[in-house]
Design goal:
The strands form 3 sheets. Strands 1, 2, 9, 10, 11, 12, 18 and 19 form an 8-stranded mixed sheet that branches. Strands 6-7-5-14-15-16-13-17 form an 8-stranded mixed sheet, sandwiched between helices. 48% of the residues are buried. Helix 1 (15-26) runs parallel beside helix 5 (149-162). The protein is of the alpha+beta class and 383 residues long. 25% of the residues lie in helices and 29% in strands. It folds into 2 domains: 2-46 and 150-215 and 321-376, FAD/NAD(P)-binding domain; 90-142 and 218-318, D-Amino Acid Oxidase, subunit A, domain 2 (D-Amino Acid Oxidase, Chain A, domain 2). The chain has 8 helices and 19 strands. The chain binds flavin-adenine dinucleotide (FAD). Flavin-adenine dinucleotide is lined by residues 11-17, 34-37, 44-46, 51-52, 172-173, 199-203, 207, 222, 224, 269, 314-316, 341, 343-347.
């Protein structure tokens, strides 16, 4: 039976657990990652080759944090000698006077970011592959682009291991026993640590309930669609930035990336999906999602086949306000929860990892963590 004593045990090897463990190892902390599946699996939220990154948030504190996230990503690139970002820009699209676009422009201006405000005519000329109504405008965030997601996970775990970190995969955690030293039981053994980070994505509520904490999260299955270019090479990262529309009708958010993951196919998805349990995610429902993507592509991307050629599944863990949950367990302050990343966490993982590693080692994070506190919800343990 495996046994061990650590400064910190991180449960979950997704981008949040890996980023936290990376920061802990760089701080010289003896750290263990426990993961239920083989590392780099595709059963959670962090798999795949690409994610969107952007400074362009409609909420200032996220844009402020993204300034650091970009710097930390560049450091990881230097450390591993790997390119982790394709800087193709991120385009926010919406009607004139759209509140989201106004807030994004303000947040970008406040951090001195390079942004192009595009009229409908400029949008049409610069991106002839897009077709939006006459009242539509665009905001191009030059700093944004495509994150090489799988490379980032691998890079974080490589540096973690180089710094002495230990990863035990195929080893689900079955119980957490609180105390001044926390004991963690898995399918294979028992481990102890001064503090534990619970970064288990969609499984957070299930893991925390036995500790008297219920999180108000909704688990959604997101279907990612890949639509074929009619003219090969027309939607590559040289021509098309990543894009986001927050004001579709009927109301839904939609996002997409240039052709990269499957060359010749642009990646497009609806920012929602049917509610599922992470353990029964493969039930065949949710055709309405691909129908909506098909309708959207037909209307706005005349250079793509509207019916997706390839579809893939991923999981969102949504909070009611779509802000993250990063906090100490209300009763057990050496158990830290990092969950509820609401479909937009990947780009912020370096900052989350740095903040959570501080929290797990008795330091106060330098970031504004108030928006992420558990007590903003009426959870069982916080009432
Ligand atoms: C389709 C899709 C597109 C997205 N696009 C973007 C984007 O463009 N930009 C962006 O910033 N964000 C994006 N996101 C969001 C981002 O990917 C997630 O916020 C992020 O990956 C969440 O990471 P996580 O580590 O919290 O969860 P996960 O990656 O799910 O990791 C949790 C880990 O915990 C493990 N675990 C669970 N239970 C146990 C247990 N009992 N014992 C041991 N291990 C356990 C799981 O196996 C898993 O490996 C997207 C998400 C999806 C699904």
């Amino acid at each position: 039976m495996a046994e061990g004593v650590y400064d910190v045990i991180v449960i979950g090897s997704g981008v949040m657990g890996s980023s936290t463990a990376y920061s802990l190892a760089k701080k010289g902390k003896k750290t263990l990652i426990l993961e239920q599946f083989p590392v780099l699996h595709s059963r959670g939220s962090s798999h795949g080759l690409s994610r969107i990154t952007r400074l362009a948030y409609g909420v200032q504190h996220y844009t402020d944090k993204m300034v650091d996230a970009f710097k930390m990503l560049a450091e990881l690139e230097r450390e591993t000698g790997t390119e982790l970002l394709i800087n193709c820009g991120t385009l926010s699209i919406g009607p004139e006077n759209d509140e989201f676009l106004r807030d994004v422009e303000k947040a970008l201006t406040n951090v001195g970011a390079a942004v192009d405000v595009l009229t409908h005519e400029q949008l049409r000329r610069r991106y002839p592959m897009l077709s939006y109504p006459h009242n539509y405008v665009g905001l191009l965030d030059h700093k944004g682009g495509l994150l090489k997601a799988d490379c980032i996970l691998r890079a974080l775990q490589t540096v973690f291991r180089q710094r002495g970190g230990e990863i035990r995969d195929c080893e689900p955690v079955t119980a957490i026993h609180p105390g001044s030293t926390v004991t963690v039981t898995t399918s294979k053994g028992t481990y102890r640590a001064a503090s534990v980070v619970v970064a288990v994505g969609s499984w957070a509520d299930k893991m925390l309930r036995p500790l008297g904490l219920s999180l108000p999260v909704k688990i959604q299955r997101v279907t990612v669609c890949y639509c074929k270019e009619l003219h090969p090479g027309s939607h590559s990262a040289q021509q098309l930035p990543c894009f986001i529309e927050h004001s579709g009708s009927p109301p839904y958010d939609i996002w997409g990336l240039p052709s990269y993951e499957y060359p010749g196919y642009a990646k497009i998805a609806l920012h929602t999906g049917p509610e599922i349990s992470p353990d029964t995610r493969d039930q065949p429902d949710g055709k309405w999602v691909t129908d909506r993507v098909t309708a959207y592509v037909k209307e706005h991307f005349p250079g793509l086949e509207s019916t997706p050629s390839i579809t893939e599944q991923c999981i969102y863990t949504m909070t009611p306000d779509e802000d993250f949950i990063i906090d100490y367990h209300p009763q057990h302050h050496n158990i830290i929860v990092a969950a509820g990343f609401s479909g937009h966490g990947f780009k912020l993982a370096p900052v989350v990892g740095e903040a959570v590693s501080d929290m797990a080692t008795g330091r106060v994070p330098k970031y504004d963590m108030k928006p992420f506190m558990i007590t903003r919800f009426k959870t069982e343990a916080s009432q």
